[in-house]
Amino acid sequence: MFDFDDDDINIIKPLADRMRPNSLDEMYGQEHILSVGKPLRTMIEHDRITSLVFYGPPGTGKSSLASIIAQKTKSYYISINAVLSNIADIRDSIKKAEGNAKRGKKTILFIDEIHRFNKSQQDALLPAIEKGTIILIASTTHNPYFYLNNALLSRVMLFEFKAIVDSDVKNALINTISSERGLGDEGIKIDESSINLIVKSSIGDIRKAITYLEMSFLSVELDDDNDSLEITEDIVKEVTTKKGMMFDRDGDEHYNVISAFIKSVRGSDANAALYYLARMLESGEDPRFIVRRLTILAVEDIGLANTNAMNVVSSLINIIEFIGMPEGRIALSEATIYLALSPKSNSAYLAIDAALKDVRDGEILNVPNYLKDTHSGSYDVHASEEYKYPHDYPYHIVEQDYLDNASHKLYYESVDIGDERELKKRYEWIVKHLYAE
Q1: Which of 13, 46, 199, 207 has CB atoms 3.0–4.6 Å from 59's, for a disulfide?
Q2: How many Å apart are CA 290 and CA 276, to the nearest integer?
Q3: pLDDT grade, residue 252 (50/70/90)?
Q4: Alpha-carbon Rg of the chain, whole angstroms?
Q5: To the nearest 10°, the Cα dihedral for 267, 269, 270, 273?
Q6: Which pLDDT tens digit goes with each residue over 164-185?
Q7: Strand locations in 56-191, DSSP E?
Q8: Could you tell me the CA-to-CA distances from 41 to 23, 132, 141, 160, 312 in Å, in that order?
Q9: pTM, whole model, 2 decimals?
């Protein structure tokens, strides 16, 4: 059995954990909710905390603030992670809180990643919140309106955490380098360009920035002639080369980036689209998912203005499967640029939706007898009106009602863009001859 004192345990802790803020004044960012006079800060300072849910990007101080609240309000603090916990853990926490309540002590139950709890797990919290047995403080990187039950949402206050601005991330790094809790006793040297690279790579995540700093520090090799520890830009680049960008496949940022990618292609900004494509590829996104989204865009947003767009995306998946990655990135880049620069038309998309609306609204027209299958039971062989075969007429077109009761529906509205210009001319000519009055 080994004995460790508190200093030994502190050394073992990750640097980001050692540098967690211990007070509101040590918090970086979130001025929109933590500035003097803001409701949340007032609630904390006057010990009037109610159940709260903090949501926003990782590394922005959600769990740190929960810990500060527990210290500030002198509450008993229970922390669980939704990934590792179940209903039994929730009940055990509530039982402890009930015991605390009998002794006149409040209990804060902090649940990290609460979006991982299913409906029954979330429901298990409701009675204790309702009675005031626990003060729930939960954190999530997901949109709570999508992942939390309405019953739970109605019992908590929501506070959004925003990504930390670069200047605050930089200040946090400088403080870590100089603080005794951090690397202050290590005598390390690091220039401003290296710090700036860490800041840029962390994308508003202080925990990630401090972790990059720690990894860089641990990567330094001591020089026999110089016992100083110098973190160079080359070391930082090595550490941050495969940086885990803010792109959780199951989270909001996953959908935000793909949404921005598609909207950039739709908006004909090839350069913006390429940036978002690079974000997804570097983060390990499945290229087939990207192709599926491009296929939808090709038929929905480019459509008849450039029908070759469908051929491009349909062949793209075969190319990706055949050559694989990383070479597949070139094909994705080529298709992205091609689609972004293609003329755009959503006329086919609007046309089918207009037709579907009529059908869904109950406008069901009978099929004219002369258009029916002659072998069907409803075909009237004695009907006087016969089907006119278009190829028997000039220009291979003939005036004829294709909808019952001469219902001349005009679902398709052609546009004068790209390849659709020629289709528009032909369409207008057809309508004129087909629906001649």
Answers
A1: 207
A2: 11
A3: low
A4: 32
A5: -70
A6: 899 999 999 999 999 988 888 8
A7: 76-81, 107-112, 135-140, 157-160, 188-190
A8: 11, 21, 21, 14, 55
A9: 0.59
Beta bridge partners of 136: 109
End-to-end CA distance of the chain: 99
Provide the residue ranges of all domains of the chain, joining segments of one domain with +: 30-160, 166-240, 252-341, 364-434
CATH 3.40.50.1820 fits 166-240, yes or no: no
8 Å CB contact between 108 and 82: no
Residues in the chain: 437
Q: What is the CATH architecture assignment of 252-341?
A: Up-down Bundle (1.20)
For residues 297-309, one letter each, b for 16 or more C-beta atoms within 10 angstroms of the residue's C-beta and e for the rest, the string is: bbbbbbbbbbbeb
Q: What is the CATH number of domain 30-160?
A: 3.40.50.300
Mean pLDDT for the stretch of residues 121-135 = 92
List all residues 6 or more positions away from 163 whose beta carbon is below 8 Å from its beta carbon: 29, 56, 57, 60, 203, 204, 205, 246
Compute CA distances 282 → 31, 277, 339, whole Å: 32, 9, 21
Give CA separation, 137 vs 54, 58, 107, 111, 118, in Å.
7, 16, 10, 6, 17
Residues 287 and 329: their CA atoms lie apart, in Å, by 8
Average pLDDT of the segment spanning 76-98: 91
| Pair of tokens at residue 330 | 């070139």
**Nearest CA among 387, 292, 284, 270 for reference residue 336:** 270
Distance (Å, rounded) from C-alpha 117 to C-alpha 138? 11
CB 414 within 8 A of CB 299: no
Give the span between the Cα atoms of 67 and 23, in whole angstroms: 9
Whether 274 and 336 have beta carbons less than 8 Å apart is answered as: yes
Enter the CATH code of domain 364-434. Answer: 1.10.3710
Distance, CA of 282 to CA of 403 (rounded, Å): 53
- Tell me if 352 sits within 8 A of 409, measured CB to CB: no
The first and second tokens of residue 37, run together, are: 């006079």
